[in-house]
Amino acid sequence: MSLSDVSKRLPDMSVSIGGLTLPSPLIIASGLWPHDASFWQEPYSEGVGAICSKGLTRRPRAGNSGIRIWETPSGVLNSIGLQNRGVEVFIKEELPLLSKSGIPVIVNLAVESLEETTESLVLLKSVEKDISAVELNVSCPNVDCGGMAWGMSAEGVSSVLLAARKAWEGKLWVKLTPQAFDLPAVGRAAEGGGADALVVSNTWLGMAIDVEAKKPVFDRIFAGLSGPAVFPLALRCLYEVAGSVSIPVIGCGGVCSDEDVLAMLLAGAAAVEIGSMLMHDLKCISNIHESLSKRLALWGVGSVADIIGKGRGDRF
Length: 316
What we know:
By secondary structure, the protein is an alpha/beta fold. The chain has helices at 3-8, 87-99, 114-125, 154-167, 183-192, 231-242, 258-267, 284-299, and strands at 15-17, 20-22, 26-28, 50-52, 69-72, 75-78, 105-110, 133-137, 172-175, 197-200, 204-207, 209-210, 215-216, 222-226, 249-252, 271-274. 29% of the residues lie in helices and 19% in strands.
């Protein structure tokens, strides 16, 4: 098939995630994209299916002190600390600008406490028409359980979903932590609690030592590792969880190319979030989308949805 033939037979790139239809399977992961309307338009928006907001909390947070970003040979460590202006400021000042772009907005909400999560969801309900889904980040510490993240156990996630579903009837995604002891069990708990989709997964805990200063780089010692180094780990987690639940699973972690996206789709992902790669190229999603659609056309695939899960043993 010639390139001209390919361009005439480009596949349908839309995907459905728990009743939400996106024009592309490529989603900008939380924490990487500015809350600036000038970035929510072409050429930056080309190929983008949805954008996750920065991680929000009920009240403003100043974030962590000290160094926040540290590059590694094949990734990056971050210790941002959920710096944000809080849900109320997001609703009043940021969401009205972002919603004008026409790009689906996924609101990433950090679960600090059940009470604050409920309060945040009640506030977000007033602007539900401008929100395509809420993505609950359950990687934050649960102080009532000795500081262990909410997403470390099925019980923790179940309690979050029980509270969240009382306040929010819209689309609800849960972003899991790879630090969970039994990730498939946590995913099943989220599904049982009423999640519409799962995001697998968040950053891995790592650290760095400044050998000249002879001390840890980060004030909080440990930080989140993302980038190409974690892709094989994220792919494994995705494969496990996708085989354990019946709701859509969104892949996330170290995605840098159309081949990475294809691997996650074939492993069972309904869509794929891209994060750290944007630190190198703000237009990488456009390039990945173009390469992905051409690759599928060469394969003779009519829709990107047709290949989801086909790497799990089914032929196509």
